UniProtKB/TrEMBL annotation:
Residues 1-27 are annotated as: Disordered. GO terms for biological process: negative regulation of transcription by RNA polymerase II; negative regulation of transcription elongation by RNA polymerase II. This is Negative elongation factor D. One of its GO terms (molecular function) is RNA binding. It comes from Drosophila yakuba (Fruit fly). One of its GO terms (cellular component) is polytene chromosome puff. Belongs to the NELF-D family. The gene is Dyak\GE15972. It is found in: Nucleus. It comes from the Eukaryota. InterPro entries: TH1 (IPR006942). Keywords: Nucleus, Repressor, Transcription, Transcription regulation.
Length: 578
């Protein structure tokens, strides 16, 4: 018999409300028949509701002899047989943990196949409160992971949503990686969001991964996006750590745009741009179309070059800045010479001017520090001129000193990376290059040295180059090219980008799609570069590669005097390795 769901089961019964199980049945014969049908099912004596049904049966005048006969005849002992088989397997020498995993995995498969959300919801109407077995169930990761999977498949199941809340209340919110599961309830989502933000703040070595995880969750839907961005916006106003929250907000916007989600109206509503209607309208127009146009650029230029400019935060929009950098540094983009200074002014203004509340003045007044604005515009202009001339590595050498002086400005560093990416990703670039290290990649080394915050971008570009198909090159030439890129990665490592580089090389080892000679070359170069003391994380990532006989077997001598043996001996003596 199907029992309709009654939400009173979630909150407990109202005071004085009569439990239906304690009421006498209106139709005793019908009740007895219903109970007998259940007693006929295999192993019904093992069901959680057995006592409730027995009570109904006896209150309606059912025969004790008949129910005893039915329950005993239909007892198949499936659960007991499973336990017996498990004991036999253990006696036969199988590990207890393996047997437990077999049983649990089979049960999970059976539950996934036969789960009925409607029947699951009736659990609370029949029990009237949270069942004890459910509370015990969420103490074990195996069953929590099952709940997560079921909640993804059945997002409307009330029993599963309630269980997810129980899991979150129990402190396991960091396990809830399914966004659709977390987004069902604001309390659960808030806890998961908090955990994700804390991970972003506490993992400087894996900022990109933490940002991606947080952004993926925030961008699940409009409601999660608005709620999260409002919270992050409030946190970004804090003096301590507020800039981190601002960066996270901007990275989330960037992620949303990459996934073709139009978040411009929400962004503009949150940044207070409505107070400046001209700037707001011009910026909204360009962001919505994802393209710059001279008319709107002119409006922004007029606003920001005036005596009372809007706040800088309006044009410090990641999408707008990306468009400006692309327009000025990507090869092939044509800008009307009449408007080009306006593009440069806005990019320099957004990156160089400091906008802060004035001391000893009303909070509404702002003090603008424009000391570096003029020099930043000049640097952008010089770099733009160099980057937009179609020249090879040889011709570029003459301009290197000028370019290096310009690269000292962070915004120019970003633009130069964009320009180099556009140049070196051309399929014919390495085919035409004869240098052991092309000048464009040498420029990347300079950017990495001057701007540590841009090292991650440089690493992503080097990874793309390393994994790119260069079928037009001979095999030996391809290997030499990849060695040269590994040299650039070693340079990044020496500049402080240690963990991301090692994680990537470790990934190459695990996937086994990289020539072992290249891994050997990388290990050799790193060993020649480093010296102790080492961080535990460095040892954890690098030591397995050094110990790998296939990688370093030919690099070892008879004694312990070679770099490989010395590194291994030192690590074994000073570090606890897993």
């Amino acid at each position: 018999m199907e029992v309709e769901y009654d939400d009173s089961g979630w909150q407990g019964r109202a005071k004085g409300q009569t439990n239906p199980e304690e009421m006498l049945e209106d139709n005793p014969q019908k009740t007895i028949q219903e109970c007998l049908e259940k007693f006929l099912t295999p192993d019904y004596i093992m069901e959680p509701g057995i006592f409730t049904q027995l009570k109904r049966y006896f209150q309606s005048g059912g025969s004790p002899e008949e129910v005893i006969s039915m329950l005993s005849e239909n007892y198949k002992a499936v659960a007991q047989m499973a336990n017996l088989l498990a004991e036999w397997l253990i006696l036969a020498g199988v590990k207890v943990t393996e047997v437990q995993a077999m049983v649990e995995n089979h049960l999970k498969e059976m539950i996934l196949k036969s789960f009925d959300p409607k029947k699951a919801d009736t659990i609370f109407t029949e029990e009237g409160e949270t069942p004890d077995w459910l509370t015990e169930m969420i103490d074990h990761y195996t069953w929590r992971s099952l709940i997560y999977r079921l909640a993804e498949e059945y997002p409307d199941c009330l029993m599963l949503n309630f269980t997810i809340k129980l899991i979150s209340d129990a402190g396991f919110q960091s396990e809830i990686t399914s966004i659709s599961t977390a987004a069902q309830q604001i309390e659960v989502f808030s806890r998961v969001l908090k955990t994700s933000i804390v991970k972003f703040l506490n993992n400087p070595d894996d900022v990109h991964g933490a940002i991606q995880e947080c952004a993926r969750m925030v961008c699940h839907g409009q409601h999660t996006y608005v709620y999260s961005q409002v919270l992050i916006q409030v946190l970004s106003q804090e003096q301590k750590g507020g800039f981190n929250m601002k960066r996270l907000s901007q990275e989330i916007i960037k992620y949303a745009l990459q996934n073709n989600q139009n978040v411009t109206p929400i962004t503009m509503a949150l940044n207070g741009s409505a107070v400046y209607p001209q700037a707001c309208q011009a910026l909204t127009s360009m962001l919505t179309r994802n393209t710059l146009n001279p008319a709107d650029i002119t409006v922004l230029f007029r606003n920001y070059s005036g005596s009372d400019p809007p706040p800088i935060d309006l044009i410090r929009n990641p999408q707008f800045l990306e468009l400006l950098v692309d327009a000025l540094f990507r090869s092939g983009v044509k800008i009307n010479p009449e408007h080009k200074p306006k593009y440069m002014f806005l990019l320099a203004y957004a990156s160089a001017v400091i906008d802060q509340p004035a001391k000893k003045r009303p909070m509404t007044e702002r003090m603008l520090n424009k000391e570096e604005l003029k020099s930043t515009i000049q640097a952008i202009e010089k770099a733009h001129t160099i980057c937009n001339v179609d020249q090879g590595s040889t011709e570029l050498i003459a301009e290197l000193q000028t370019l290096y002086n310009c690269i000292k400005y962070p915004v120019v560093g970003v633009g130069v990376i964009r320009w180099i990416e556009n140049v070196v990703m051309e399929p014919s670039y390495f085919k035409l290059s004869t240098d052991s290290c092309p000048t464009h990649l040498a420029v990347l080394d300079e950017v990495a040295a001057v701007h540590p915050t841009l090292q991650q971008q440089i690493l992503f570009l080097l990874i793309r180059l390393f994994e790119s198909k260069q079928d037009e090159l001979e095999i030996l030439v391809q290997l030499e090219m990849k060695k040269m890129i590994l040299d650039r990665m070693v340079n990044l490592l020496t500049r402080g980008c240690v963990v991301p580089v090692l994680r990537y090389i470790k990934q190459c080892c695990a996937i086994e799609d990289t020539d072992i000679s290249l891994i050997r070359y990388f290990v050799t170069e790193v060993l020649e570069t480093i010296t102790h003391p080492y961080s535990p994380e460095f040892v954890q990532l690098f030591l397995p590669m050094v110990e790998n006989e296939e990688i370093t077997g030919t690099m070892r001598g008879e004694g312990d005097n070679d770099p490989v043996s010395e590194f291994i001996v030192h690590c074994k003596a000073h570090y606890t390795t897993v």
